[in-house]
């Protein structure tokens, strides 16, 4: 068996708890504006749940990936006493269960104590993990300082090489809230939040590796005024467009999800474009990132959390058919009238079939639910509950064949658990016949 944990402090949790009781009352009046499809259960196939039990002090994660053969990979962080370790495991058969975990970081590499789930990317036998290391020169007046590291395995995750440094500024500051994606040409694209210029608000920075993670190109900034703790997101299209999403601060503490694109393989990026025009005024960082995906026709999908100008907690989806220059009208995905939707993540397959996983919180329960679309975001099924115990930190990935892997963490005394489960989208002809699943 593996090991696990006491509940980690939820980012932004104190704010959420103060407001949850009021939200439940307000949400009971909420009407969903989504178009919901009555999709027969037999159209998709749910795989078995595979659970690993963890009895260490704490666990952060998981992150998941799935390859074209259905082999599942996962990475997470464990803390036992004063030692923090990033672990990686993969399944020996399609869909799970996970095999024996191996350490990603070296014993001399000190994982940052507020590390989020590691960013994970898998390409054949190459496995890449980005994570934040406590800065070797940390001082009491700079307690949150860290270095962004890239770890690599060339043998399918059986062993990992010593990590290399991603940020190139050499400053004792925080470099974190990272994301990563491997482009079709094999380039590894990374984005993160970085305060190296000493401004009141940090910036969104990017870098890439074009030599299989041996070296990192020069860092550069996409934009200023980044919300300090909402994690970045990266996606790449089949034709090589690179997209980065983050939450940007506008005048008056307005916090909007924005997207920037690169048409030259990550060498330059466009000015950011606002996705939802939520007008959410919030004088702190909500710790709630966006999620990106692109289908084979180049449609870019964005899923994010916001409370908008009316302070209604909601999970939305919008898409762009012009490489992120403009976005569709946003569509609300959460359907429950008495819960707080939170921390959405999305995966999109080449056909434009979408799986969105998120938390549904109430004062006494925390569920993990999934909703999917088989028609490029036009309609979604009613959310399906996945967890058995109180669940959190959901994550999702999909391969080229429409096999989805979902992961989350559950709290169960005296130990805690990481759970993975697959969902299989139907063949395209079945989708078209049974639900009219055409594109636009």
What's the helix and strand layout?
Blueprint: H1 13-27, E1 45-46, E2 50-54, E3 58-66, E4 72-80, E5 83-90, E6 102-103, E7 119-123, E8 126-134, E9 146-153, E10 164-165, E11 175-182, E12 188-194, E13 203-209, E14 220-223, E15 233-236, E16 242-250, E17 254-262, E18 273-274, E19 280-281, E20 291-294, E21 300-306, E22 314-320, E23 331-332, E24 340-348, E25 354-361, E26 366-373, E27 384-385, E28 390-398, E29 403-411, E30 416-424, H2 428-435
Antiparallel strand pairs: 1-30, 2-30, 3-4, 4-5, 5-6, 7-8, 8-9, 9-10, 11-12, 12-13, 13-14, 15-16, 16-17, 17-18, 17-19, 20-21, 21-22, 22-23, 24-25, 25-26, 26-27, 28-29, 29-30
Describe the protein's architecture and organization.
With 440 residues, this protein is mostly beta strands. The chain has two helices and 30 strands. The protein has one domain: Neuraminidase, CATH 2.120.10.10. Strands 1, 2, 28, 29 and 30 form a five-stranded antiparallel sheet that branches. Strands 15, 16, 17, 18 and 19 form a five-stranded antiparallel sheet that branches. It has a four-stranded antiparallel sheet with strand order 3-4-5-6, with no helix packed on it. The chain is globular and about 55 Å long.
